[in-house]
């Protein structure tokens, strides 16, 4: 297995197990693609975020969203799973997605999801909101979090990549 594949497997596989699902064998992902230029619509959505996100790598963000897919959907009207559906998450008040039972710790917060809150949350949910029931360990790499947040902005807004 190439070093790039090993690195990607090391990132993706622990997150799948974090949702109490068995981690599959290492995926065969092939060579990592070069950074893809976002569509004009996707770039307009990225431009709504702070400047650090304007040049994010959406393909890297999509790959890292695979860590989230075991517990979350991001489609309009998609179901809540182990975690809530994330469609329309930007600008939404924390812990109000209908039909999902949030922890008391998260329900006590009073903010709207934006890039800053998502960055802190995705770095380490249990540190950012002690007492949360989210078992995900977090994404320590700043660039990977940036790319994931940018991808989530576009995907959760219905924008084309």
Walk me through what this model shows.
This protein has a single domain, classed as Cytochrome Bc1 Complex, Chain D, domain 2 (Orthogonal Bundle). It is 41% helix and 0% strand. The protein is built from seven helices and no strands.
In short:
By secondary structure, the protein is mainly α. The protein has helices at 3-18, 40-46, 58-69, 104-107, 115-123, 125-128, 142-155.
Largest sheet features: none
Supply the CATH architecture.
Orthogonal Bundle
The number of E-state strands comes to 0
What is the average of the pLDDT values? Answer: 85
Distance from N terminus to C terminus (CA atoms, Å) equals: 29 Å
Overall geometric form: globular
β-sheet strand percentage = under 5%
Q: Number of helical segments?
A: 7
- Which structural category fits the helices and strands? mainly alpha
pLDDT < 50 runs, ≥5 residues: 1-9, 13-18, 20-29
The number of distinct structural domains comes to: 1
Rg result: 15 Å
- What's the CATH topology name? Cytochrome Bc1 Complex, Chain D, domain 2
CATH class categorisation:
Mainly Alpha
Write the layout of secondary structure elements.
Blueprint: H1 3-18, H2 40-46, H3 58-69, H4 104-107, H5 115-123, H6 125-128, H7 142-155
Helix pairs in contact: 1-3, 3-7, 5-7
